[in-house]
Sequence to fold (223 residues):
Amino acid sequence: MAAGLGYKEFLTGDILTAADANGYLASQVVMVFASSAARAAAITSPQEGMITYLKDTDVTQYYSGSAYVTIGGSTSKVIQMVNTQTGTVATGTGNIPSDNSIPQITEGDQYMTLSITPTSASSVLLIDVFAISAAGSDTFQSAALFQDSTANALASIAGLIAGTDKVYTFAFRHKMTAGTTSATTFRVRIGGNAGTTTFNGRAGSQLLGGSLASSITITEYTP
Fold:
């Protein structure tokens, strides 16, 4: 598809050639596509100044000569949000490493899980974690976030002790590109240095005004 020829006002009786139709009309309208993938398949050699509209993300973009640029600045929007909360008491059997970084990975350390099926591989996932754990005989605890069965943690944090009963609280956020449109499960695990950790799930008697549940929230939004 050729680049546009500029602006021209046609008069009654003018005869449009194929070059006129392509250069003044076809190359200058806003072309509508279902997605960026559909656009790429239809326009293999985009020309500078082309304007397109994408239905899946509701954005209008122009081609700068090297890339498509969104018109009107940031257009990020929330696509979906999933959440889970728990007040269940569970016991883990994993220690934390000697450097007090992240829990070792054993199934007994699994505390909370939450799955999401991204609508686009290019979407951004924002994962917010809040967890509560009883200290028991631990003098140190940490929590970590894992994706599916991957052994390496995406993020980890040391616990903060609250109250005389030594209730550990963990709050952290992880941001990442989805990278898939398949169902993905995120897991939060907690470990302590005494070898056995009791996961409260919620703190009640230690807090003024009621209990506080542990939770994971995942928000998917357009980049």
